[in-house]
Description:
It catalyses: acetate + ATP + CoA = acetyl-CoA + AMP + diphosphate. This protein is an alpha/beta fold.
Amino acid sequence: xxxxxxxxxxxxxxxxxxxxxxxxxxxxxxxxxxxxxxxxxxxxxxxxxxxxxxxxxxxxxxxxxxxxxxxxxxxxxxxxxxxxxxxxxxxxxxxxxxxxxxxxxxxxxxxxxxxxxxxxxxxxxxxxxxxxxxxxxxxxxxxxxxxxxxxxxxxxxxxxxxxxxxxxxxxxxxxxxxxxxxxxxxxxxxxxxxxxxxxxxxxxxxxxxxxxxxxxxxxxxxxxxxxxxxxxxxxxxxxxxxxxxxxxxxxxxxxxxxxxxxxxxxxxxxxxxxxxxxxxxxxxxxxxxxxxxxxxxxxxxxxxxxxxxxxxxxxxxxxxxxxxxxxxxxxxxxxxxxxxxxxxxxxxxxxxxxxxxxxxxxxxxxxxxxxxxxxxxxxxxxxxxxxxxxxxxxxxxxxxxxxxxxxxxxxxxxxxxxxxxxxxxxxxxxxxxxxxxxxxxxxxxxxxxxxxxxxxxxxxxxxxxxxxxxxxxxxxxxxxxxxxxxxxxxxxxxxxxxxxxxxxxxxxxxxxxxxxxxxxxxxxxxxxxxxxxxxxxxxxxxxxxxxxxxxxxxxxxxxxxxxxxxxxxxxxxxxxxxxxxxxxxxxxxxxxxxxxxxxxxxxxxxxxxxxxxxxxxxxxxxxxxxxxxxxxxxxxxxxxxxxxxxxxxxxxxxxxxxxxxxxxxxxxxxxxxxxxxxxxxxxxxxxxxxx
Length: 691
Ligand code: PRX
């Protein structure tokens, strides 16, 4: 591969450039019977994109051939998006194909090339800082998965059963997911930070018959109990379906235990006949376990995501289409090359962890890093130290992490080398240009391309994303759609399609293999939420602007739009303006009712370390916003907030901020999923609208 070490800007356009920008197109040699290994030129993208839209059956047949099937599918696409049709919304891909996801992530690599057995599948980086390297090879992982799959079978868990997984971010979690996939059990991972009530709600919704957990987890130096939360959840009537609880002992033997963890382990309650230590059960099984042949449309997993109202939605993903999509998007978007070390900082409790810590990388025979800790422990150099320690080539994280780290002195980054990096990525929320530039220049040393990937739990994989070095980047834009994805803006008022340049509700015109098939046992709600708002389209719930050059700029959730004096203002846009001020680390903007202007604009602002709060600074920030966006945009209230209410995955909970500023503090709703619920009280006390 040719590397251009310094041509970062070509004709003033940023490519970010330790990658494969070539002049010659590989499509010239492409025989059209299988997909090329990487996408290297814009012409190549355009021709393949056109093929994926004009002949999806051909394109997605080639994509499926990247996997190994027991029975290769002959029926590729069979989908209906229109809720008004007599068939109703129905999504089927590869419906006569037979496949096993675990086999595709592990066995086949070794069967095809015995060298793969010794290659590292997972590098585990524990919460505790250590020089020790924990490497798990493909052969070791396969053996561990087979054994654990036999433990599941021994406890009567079989194809089609639902298993809830409530674990910290450790290798055993990956083993648990892969073992479920191997025997055809449907996993439902609940992020380890959720409260026992939230776990109970999710167990009862999917009626799981078993829970896989750990005695505890460790994050940021703190011990977090897990098994005891499951105990509490299982006392609830609605969780009576659970017959077995399999308990991993966290990081058996590899690390010394902190005092609070020892206490936690010693105080564990045990219910005989229900609770089982995994390490004891593993001794009773052998390590032969054939993968279960699954129909492509058999469920692979359920993953809960919060809806704008009501109870969480059990997003249902199936087997063949999901893996085809997660695998191809991983390969192309990261331009993954054999031998590269890849790290995604997400927890397996979220879709990013499913698709891009586990299934995408392993199906491509990649080396993936599993990081147990947080970016700020023991200090804010942690990510950059990990990059050096493991010589990471591709690093994928969330804008919220980037913003929280850029608030500190750059020396926390620059004292590390980061020379191994080739590519950076972001996911989860719009990245403001200021954070993008910091990531690009300081973290990437102005050498690495950034892939800003827009997608959702529901989409299974990347939807709008740059392909590295194939077209120029614009900081803050996720750029262009992935193969097979037809974006369409619709007017929020008239519901009519809009032609770019325009801004509207972001919808998708036709199906792609990775999309969710339904909500678990609630197809009606699935159709209502995603297909009825704009009949004939999948509605993402996001707003988007598409510019003349076709680049997509996500403006945030449609319900995050403020209407002030007849102007629509995206809260993300205002936040982006605020964080461009050198004193601001993070901002969250919400609306509150105003009789004259319809809505007023309330800005929560977190200042960088050592910046003093003052009225003069408030005035400066208001001016910054007006200067950046327009004089019609006027922040009414600036509230300096050292902390914002965030979910454990780092997302700011705007729902709670809206309630504070309305004010409607008696109806804050569920705050149990917050990283630190005490933040809410601090904000209420300081808010001019609640005083
Ligand atoms: O609003 C979009 C935002 O995150 C939402 C999906 O959240 P979730 O299902 O939790 O999945 C997160 C990981 C894929 C989207 O509706 N979002 C995600 N990625 C981006 C984004 N907003 C802007 N830019 C992105 N790159």
